[in-house]
Write a structure and sequence with these properties.
The chain contains 3 helices and no strands. The protein has helices spanning 2-16, 23-48, 53-75. The protein has 77 residues and is mainly alpha-helical.
Amino acid sequence: MGGVGLLAGYIGPLVLNPESNIGPVIGIVFTGPVGMCIGLLLGAFTRSLELSLRAQWYWLLATCAIVLFATLRLAMP
């Protein structure tokens, strides 16, 4: 989750708005750590519900997609 946030925040703004230099800052300072925290909370949440491994992966992939699209949406000019 942290990796998805880091890459989306670092590379996304560079691709969507190349003349802006805020992309690396967004990825390193904001979306990477926030993605890591969300991943830890999601892991604790799915473990407390005692979901199957398959259901945990579905939750993880869905949340990664949400973080990816939200980060790219916020990075658009």
